[in-house]
Amino acid sequence: MRSGRDRSVDLNADLGEEVTDDAGLLAVVTSANVACGFHAGTPETMRTVCAGAVASGVTVGAQVSYDDRENFGRVARDVPPAVLREQVAEQVGVLSAVAASEGGGVAYLKPHGALYHRVAVDGLQASAVLDGSGDLPVLGMPGSLLLSLAGERGRGVRLEGFPDRGYTPGGGLLPRDRPGALVTDPDEVARRAVRLAAQVHSVCVHGDSPGAVTTAGAVRRALEAAGLLVRSCWSAPAPDARAEGRWVP
Question: What's this model's pTM, rounded to 2 decimal places?
């Protein structure tokens, strides 16, 4: 759980997916998970987001995915570890080069969609993602195997929660086709974000959701009204231990 000394939280969103108001979100969030071309995104969208992030002081992360633009990276794939490692390395490399050309850099890694959920439980694929991403710190859900393996390798780890998604009793996300999987009311998302902020380092608002900018704005206002400093968890000092007790979504 959050220590009494740390009153900050990060606000992240997925950007560069070609269906998102990137400029609007960059005015609100503190970290941007940038699509690297495999589920969405192009060199042009990456460049635009990275330039905007540098101008806005927003931290850039690589949002790596299965090679599956047709399904927006939301269908599980049985990709051989060696292939997945190279795919992740390619995505991180492309975004890193683009970010550097705009005067910035890539500060962390966050898998997208089906890959995000697969590496939470699959050691082979989690290891492949880590092998392909250098020494980048990793953002993920509490209990994720990817985070455990990253920690064993001495890589930075940050926990995130999803106020705009429904959770299972075990702490996972409800599949998108289940009732209650998507929370769309901005005020309700904001209330959930304040609750989650006590357990994680970063809260995520899905950038491809309708009204994402409005929802992200409501979340930020609610976090600040709760006395929290909304800032990038990647530029802050080493975070305290959170979610040490039972995970309560």
Answer: 0.92
